Amino acid sequence: MSNVVALDHLFDARRLWRGQPQARPPSRQPTGFPRLDATLPSGGWPEAALSEVLLPLDGIGELTLLWPTLARLTQADGRVALIAPPYLPFPAAWANAGVRLDRLQVVRAEARDVPWATEQCLRSAACAAVLCWPQHADDRTLRRLQLAAETGQCLGIAMRPASAAAHASPAALRLVMETRPARLRVLKCRGGNPPAQPLPWPLPTGTSEAPPDSPATAVPDRA
Amino acid sequence: MLWACILLPQLALDGVLRRHATPDEPLVLVDGPVQRRVLRAVNAAAKAQGLRAGLPLATAQAICARFATVEHDPLETTRWHDFLAAWAYRYGAQVSRQMPASLLIEVEASFRLFGPWPRMEALLREDLVALGFRHRIALAPNPWAARALAGVHDGLAITHDAPLKQALGQLPVERAGLPPEAADSLRRMGLRRLAQVYALPRAALGRRVGADTLDQLDRLTGTLATPLTCYQPPDHFESRIEFNYEVGATGQLLFPLRRMTGDLAAYLAGRDGGVQRFVLRLEHERGAATEVPVGLLAPERDGGMLFELARGRLDVVQLAAPVRALQLIARELPPFVPAGRDLFDVRPQQAVPWEQLRERLRARLGDEAVHGLSVHADHRPERAWRDHGQSAPAPPQPRPGWLLPQPIPLRERELRILAGPERVESGWWDGDVRRDYYVVETAAGQRAWAYCPVGEREGFMLHGWFA
């Protein structure tokens, strides 16, 4: 005959926990796409961490994915650094997307200097977000960048080729953009399981102050 | 007025020691003709070995087997004197380096800024210790008394005439700054202390020792005011370190470089200025010197930052020949405006302001590596942007997020035209452009911005990506 144990004790000892998720505070780094925010456990970009966007090709909407975030950060007077972008950011398009150009800084660097420059920018806490295009980044490099983003309390986003999806990465969030059909797949997200279904691309934009269908409210209360 | 006298008893030796990597090993300054070298000054370690100033070099070598010798250079000593005057200039508007091996600063006017004398004295001493100069400090109502008292006391502070008289009275006659022959004859008369001299009838004393001595006695008490020539800071900074060995790697230059940038920072703080551009000259045994320019976008004066930037530039220099001397020259010294910072700003550790980060990136990646972006009002895409300046309003037409630096042929068969044509026709005055731009989709799903000659629908040139 087993002992009858009060549930409260088990809860207090952290040996048992409720499956029903608690309502989360809204993320401080929403992506600007409510459907994507709702999918991610952090409700947006992971704060003070490195995220990866993996791209099979250029020109498939990678800037459309980032522009709402960059517009929000620059309009709040944050500085955004672009480290070694593959092409010239065309100012007219960035301005039309709402990005404040005077808060944007482009850093040109050779391939071997890109990780160094990115780490300096992330660690400095002088930037609100740092975007980098490392050509070949190994696991150690990415780990350094992840640590630098934590130290500098900075949003770091690395744009990498889709072939990197096969390798593990210390990044807190990994997104893959796919073409034919155009989709956005969450490969890894810290703090939860990545959703099984990819999201259709392009996603509708909007303010994600109160996501319309966040899991906290979408999961029916079975209690 | 209150004058502080900083006496530098070892100015020449300290100037040499502070740039030596091992100041704790015996070191002497030598002077005199080649046949008869004499020790001019010795450091503490050499003194412990039994060496003292005035000893012939041959005798010194008999006493102690191993010690470093450095040639005494009066010009170098003058340079350090100037450097310290520049440093002292931040503590008072009237600084004089007229008297040898001492600095006189009028400090009473600066009390409101730096606090009362004890606090200010502590500041002076702290700086001098950091700069590496032995010193004695005395405060008196007139500069001549301050100088005489500093010769005997350290840390004495006299602010009124009555205690000054008493302190001067206790001064030995030979330490009062009198002409040597007058001091000598006074001593032979049996007068040991200044009090005895002041007690003598003035006219009779004047006949015996001369007018110069009377003047000096009056200056000490403050009854005769003699103006001092005040120090005027120069408009540029130069510092040079010569090595008595050959330096083959830039890494070995870092220690002297740290001293030099620290000196530059001290000098700039004294001027309340900043530096925007300076040059490191690496002098070789033969051939032209290597010049390493260090440029900043905005004036700075923080010693650590200047060192780090200079180091970044020095790291990438390939030395063609060993370095014999290092020189730092700063000619442009614009006013320094410190960046505003929030009082309650909570910043993570290792945080550096953007200006510093930008300089760090430029130091390693090159002067042109960091730039901004702005819209320029021009129809031609390749001319519609600038890397600096104010932004013009952006045109409402669709423009791609990525622009290729050079248009390249778009070799794809299955292009789907999504929008266009948009005719861009401009610039007959500087490179004519006539193009029809289309938004096209490639087979892989990329959206491209491509153009072809006016009126045609093939031969697309890729000029951007709608990303």
Residue share in helix of chain A: 25-40%
Task: Give the count of helical stretches of chain B.
Answer: 15
CATH homologous superfamily title of chain A: P-loop containing nucleotide triphosphate hydrolases
Q: Helix count of chain A? A: 7
Number of self-contained structural domains of chain A: 1
Oligomer: heterodimer
Gross geometry of chain A: globular
Distance between the termini of chain B: 72 Å
Percent strand of chain B equals 25-35%
Averaging pLDDT over every residue of chain A, what do you get? Answer: 83
Task: Please compute the radius of gyration of chain A using only Cα atoms.
Answer: 19 Å
Domain UmuC (chain B): 24-148
Pfam families (chain B): IMS
Keywords (chain B): DNA damage
Region (Disordered) (chain B): 376-402
Structural description of this entry:
The complex is a heterodimer of chains A (223) and B (467). With 223 residues, chain A is an alpha/beta fold. Chain A is 27% helix and 19% strand. Chain A has helices at 7-12, 34-39, 62-75, 91-96, 114-124, 139-152, 215-218, and strands at residues 50-55, 80-83, 88-89, 104-107, 129-132, 155-161, 173-178, 183-189, 199-200. Chain A starts with 6 loop residues before the first helix and ends in a 5-residue tail after the last helix. By secondary structure, chain B is α+β, with helices and mostly antiparallel strands. Chain B folds into three domains: 3-25 and 67-221, no CATH class; 237-332, DNA polymerase, Y-family, little finger domain (Dna Ligase, domain 1, 2-Layer Sandwich); 397-465, no CATH class. Chain B is built from 15 helices and 20 strands. At the A-B interface, helix 3, strand 3, helix 4, strand 4 and helix 5 of A face helix 15, strand 13, strand 14 and strand 16 of B. Strand 3 (88-89) of chain A pairs antiparallel with strand 16 of chain B.
